[in-house]
Amino acid sequence: MPEDDLAEEAARLTINGDNSDRGDLGFVAKRLAQEARQTLSSSGGSRGIRDVTEEFTVAAKQLQPGQLVKDEYFTLFEAVGALEIMDPKMDSGYVPLGDTLEPDFDVCKGLPAEQVLWIMDELLRLTAVWHDGYPLSQTIFTSLHVDRLLSPDNRPPYQLSYGDMTLRIMTVEEQLVHIVLRAYCVALVKSCALVLHTIQSQNFYEEEDFVTHLFGRELLPSTGANDAIKLLDEAVKFLDGAEVRQVMRAALLERLHFAQTYISLLITNSADWNTLAAMGRLAETHKLAQPIPEAFSDKVQRQLATSTPPRPMIAISWDEALQRWTEFCADVVEADRLTCFDVCQSPHALHRAIWAFAYREPQPNTFARAYLQTILFASEQITEGMAFFDLMLTDMRDLALAGDVLADPQSFLIEMPSDSRHRCSRIIEMFMDKAFDEYMNLYRMVCQNRCRIRRTFTQSVAIFDSLETEAMKTDAELESITPGIVLPHEDGSGKVALNPLTSWVKYHRLQTMAWTTQLGFETDIYLPHELSMMYWYLMVFAQRRCKLVEHIERFLAARRKRFASSRDARPDDEAAASQEWLAVLHKQADFEASLSSALWQLTELLMTLGILQPPKRDYAQEQLLYDVRMKSYLGIAHDPIPTLEEYMSAAQSDQSVGETCNNVNSTIADAKGCLAFLKKTNPEQGKYVGTEEQWKREIKQLETTCVAVAVQTSQLRRVADKHGKLVSVARDASMKGMLEVSIPLPGSRYHGWWVVPQIRERKK
Amino acid sequence: MADGEANPDSVQAVQYLDDLLNKTLHLHITDGRMFVGQLKCTDNERNIILAMTHEYRQPSQADVKLAAERHEKGGLSGNVKVGMRKRFLGLVVVPGQYIEKVESCWTTSITSQI
């Protein structure tokens, strides 16, 4: 018997590794084998059921109180997740005394236009809530009309009535339900199916972002989306000639048009969501609706397949729901604009565009982010004529190899095997293959929720580090075929080559390290007393980035000198553009280094003076705390991060309070200088085409942040002076009790990535 | 594993219950529902934990009526079959006080018994 074979297979299931009873994998395997054996019944024999109530009860009574008879692989930890039957909070099928299993509402009965309108608007409201991530069991499935259409008892063509309605002559009110409302429900359900398809085709996180659970129901599988549109057309035709008040006719037609537009946009994957947004007129006619809350009920959960406790229906207001719809449409339209052809020509501009999308307020919902991913990754290319390969090559070229024959697209077309360009291109392609996944993740991961961006980038750091090893090997190979420019080392000792691929990977690694730290500030994972250390590390990462950019710039300048004598202007133009952009990157890294330095010094001073203190921890050890916090960076092999000792020895506690305040101010002045430079950059130079508005806004926020730091520092200085502490060495001075510090929460900062402590004098 | 007791009745009881572990049980409870799942755990209050559980309900009058209508429409003869309503729940614990009947499944097969 096939099932027996399977059962035997399952029984033999083992996984190599720890086979002891409590070894995780062996444990799971045994457990799976056991459950499989049980589920696969052996056929070909006879079976039956036997009443064992007496025996079971007697046997159970023999047990001691608290004694359990349980399967050896069943852990009590799991038992906590068991649904307790007959407990109303856990048992979704529990029917209280006096209540009926099913809601007492006849979905087939005719309804006046005002009530049909209300139901349609309520469904719209619930769809907005579903988009926000609430499960169908709490939203669209609570509609009794939808529930009837989706019921397992129902059959195509999914009418509201199980009986035959065609022979009856329906009243207008019945027609409003069976023609108009039904068409609307069918369209909404098919739209859900399309939305789910888009979301599930891309990267997202179940339960965090969105709940895709269908609770054992199918979404009208025999009806296609185009059939739904036909139904809507028929409903419109009916309404046009129906005996309904003109104002109600108009209101109902608006809802039908909304449903038509919504589903059409989903079918064609078009970005023309402005047409949907323009349907704001819905807001005006909503007041004509007459509530009929009996048409919705959470009792539907009693019949849905669910391994979770019953959940309440969501309450957001109609106005809030409309607001969500408007934002939703705007997000999709913006996603399209941000990935237009021009923006996609520059990897950096595209990257900025995706970050800008992620930082829209409020954060775009899961569908909008899946839509953006679909635009970028669903086809074989980023945009017309720009394959993923081209994008990556352009990135390398823009950063490290402008004007260089190595990254010239033409070089990759050379077919003559003896040509050095052909050989180099194949080597570079092999490297790009290895780096491809992680490189594309730089774009894809920014489309996830904020916490996940930080967490995945933390893992990327390690991957980039190992890619750097590959890059070094590749650079050595390239150097042996086409020796590049060699320059004297910055510190005078010996020579150094560009190592373009290594520089490229290193740049992305350093950038990612900075981002993970910044996102840590944004998602509020650092305790107040850790701010100082994290800002110091951010400063170090930024300084290393500066050095790397300087390294690349030296070679770029040297390369340009060689072009001076050439007749072809293109490489030089390319190099000139790259130079301008590298200058911008340099300034941005400079700025980051300066501002983080200022904040490091300020927060460190606050700690030294006893104002910001770690919590009392008797068993904590500095090194262990450090290891846990910096865990993701500790494994970096190429230019490892400074150790805890190095951080501690960088402390400035032997300066006076006044001196430190002065240093903070001068560092802030440096930061402001960088911002002034960046302000004067145009979109081409800074590669921020498409995100001009965000660029300007961010500089403003950063300027305000700089001012805030200066203000807080002067606060500190003023109070220190008042108590005669200004010239005291910080280490020996204590200002405990003289000042209060509060750390602004995410959402109440000038810029989400920069935490400026608020310093106030404590009044006696 | 269950702790053994010196009392021979108790040992036998534990053995009996132990043998039922991972077998499929049908639990009928006071409100008329039936739960079918694999026995994972029980205690002296007869609280029962079932895994991979399905909940079954008796069909309502409306269900019977619908089945009859469809039977007629389809021109079928003989008795009308009305299925019980079924849905998947996963891991459940049924408190002993609500259990009215416990049934176990038995099978004999042509090949060896599992």
Biggest beta sheet summary of chain A: 2 strands, antiparallel
State the separation between the terminal residues of chain A, measured CA to CA. Answer: 86 Å
Strand order in space, largest sheet of chain A: 4-5
Low-confidence stretches of chain A: 14-22
- Determine the structural class of chain B based on helices, strands and strand pairing: alpha+beta
Structure explained in plain terms:
- The complex is a heterodimer of chains A (764) and B (114).
- In chain A, helix 5 packs parallel to helix 7 (172-201) and helix 19 runs antiparallel to helix 20.
- Chain A is globular and about 95 Å long.
- Among the domains of chain A are: 3-81, no CATH class; 113-315, no CATH class; 545-577 and 585-619 and 651-764, no CATH class.
- Chain A is mostly helical and 764 residues long.
- The termini of chain A are far apart.
- Chain A has 27 helices and 9 strands.
- Mean pLDDT of chain A is 90; it is low at 14-22.
- In chain A, the strands form 3 sheets. In chain A, strands 4-5 form a two-stranded antiparallel ribbon. Chain A has a two-stranded antiparallel sheet with strand order 6-7. In chain A, strands 8-9 form a two-stranded antiparallel ribbon.
- Chain B is α+β, with helices and mostly antiparallel strands.
- Helix content of chain B is 23%, strand content 40%.
- Chain B has helices spanning 8-20, 61-73, and strands spanning 24-29, 34-43, 48-57, 85-94, 99-108.
- Chain B is elongated and about 65 Å long.
- Classes of the chains: A mainly alpha (764), B alpha+beta (114).
- Chains A and B meet through helix 2, strand 1, helix 3, strand 2 and strand 3 of A and helix 1, strand 1, strand 2, strand 3 and helix 2 of B.
- Chain A: It comes from Friedmanniomyces endolithicus.
- Chain A: Residues 65-228 form the NAA35-like N-terminal domain.
- Chain A: It is found in: Cytoplasm.
List the main descriptive attributes of the protein structure presented here:
heterodimer; A: 764 residues; mainly alpha; B: 114 residues; five-stranded antiparallel sheet; 2 helices; 5 strands
